[in-house]
Amino acid sequence: MPNKRTMATSPKKLHIKTFGCQMNAYDSERMAEVLQPAGYELTDEANDADLVILNTCHIREKAAEKVYSELGRVRLNKEARKAKGRDTLVAVAGCVAQAEGEEIIARAPVVDIVVGPQSLHRLADLVAEAQSTGKRSVETEFPAEDKFAALPVRADGKRHVSAFVTVQEGCDKFCTFCVVPYTRGAEYSREPAEIVAEVERLSARGVREVTLLGQNVNAYHGSGVDGGRWSLAQLLRKLAENPAIERLRFTTSHPHDMDDDLIALFGDEPKLMPYLHLPFQAGSDRILAAMNRKHTAADYEALIARIRDTRPDIALSTDIIVGFPGETDADFEETLSLTRRVRFAQAFSFKYSARPGTPAANLDGQVPDSVKKERLAVLQALLEESRRGFDQATVGRRMPVLFGGKGRKPGQITGRSPYLQAVHVEGPDTLIGHIAEVDISAAGPNSLTGVMKSGFEWREPVQAAV
Ligand code: SF4
Hints:
This protein is α/β, with parallel strands linked by helices. Helices cover about 35% and strands about 20% of the residues.
């Protein structure tokens, strides 16, 4: 579902509609920061915005068509504003912008700027150019300059308990169903010193939990100050030294890049939360080979066994595709069987849908939609049972919960368990931004309920200097 990024009014108003993943949400924040020096402030109201940006995602079915239909609504709004003598600039960013490029300019005259994910630091220049010349532009090259170095420092003054930090972009794996290697380009890792500094700034603003993001985050390989290559495990160890950061997470990982050091970290770094998102996509080796996944079902299970040896209580999450071209009932049964054996705490499952330009789009043996639907329903019922089983097993346990905000009911606050479950308790607002021990009393359909550890007395913690 799309979500809207918002901020106040003032000279020029900016509305960003974000589709897709956490990396897009991060990019939207950064685009707002890039445009802030040019006098743009975020607004919730698309109708009131001088600049509208659609930050698009290419992962879902018919992604491009959805963007064009959204642009139809934007066009009506632009025309209504024009009638009142007010101009509106329209930009399309994100993965659809990267994939469609000039095609967007040709098909949607309402669009002034098309900007790919690797070029968003050039947005202020593109906006200034569109305003002064009225020229429409497409910026989807993979520029030589380092996007992250060119982006302004994050400093929105807002207080969040948890933050995402992109540390890696792009992918060299070329799974045959996926557009990421084409839309986000080759694997690129940010420098560790830059990431450490960004996390220090975030922690000084009250952030206690950081999730490192990357399309293939565990392939991270930054150059350390010592000149050597830093792995994701080394980077996490360094970030754990920050006394104000209490929790670390990372996503999304590829099984092929789960090295020994990273697995060991789940056992010896208490700040690394026991939650791992590790897509396996299919349980049949024949389908995994056709997907170019570089692992077999047995490799995946052996990896899970090693991770569970290191951290027995770890919550595992995954992505699964059903109905990949050529998938038979027997192949699908292998997916169900692997799913039953691993017992996931969380999962994201999808029907295969062809992405133009990817190798799988041209494979023979496309599976009829009715079959995909049936298989997905069976798989999702199994995954739901597994998720509920995991949640139920936490009832009766005492867990540290990081509180991030008020609950829906008066007097209630809400937070996250180490396993990323939402937890609601009766408690004071002063706990927001902090961790407290909670006795889990019940598991609902989407969240847990608990009571504050008995005898718990709230005291303002000593803030670490950062
Ligand atoms: S590893 Fe992930 S991002 Fe890379 S090609 Fe495969 S599915 Fe896409």
